[in-house]
Amino acid sequence: MGTVNAALIGLLVGSALLVAGLAAPFAVAVAVLAGLAFFLASLLRGKRRYDSVWRNNRPIHPTPGAAG
Question: In this structure, which of 9, 22, 25, 53 has its CB flanked by the most CB atoms within 10 Å?
Fold first, then answer.
């Protein structure tokens, strides 16, 4: 999902910059950077959430004999 959203954000930013009258190479470069920034932010947020859930995980059926 993050990949698709990053691509759409890149297209939106690039299109907006082209409509604003900026040169195409500049608009493409900024659009790629915007897409990569969103993708990286999505990865970091997902990793933080995954780590939080894993850290707070309480097993439903703990290992027999395990201290808990």
Answer: 9
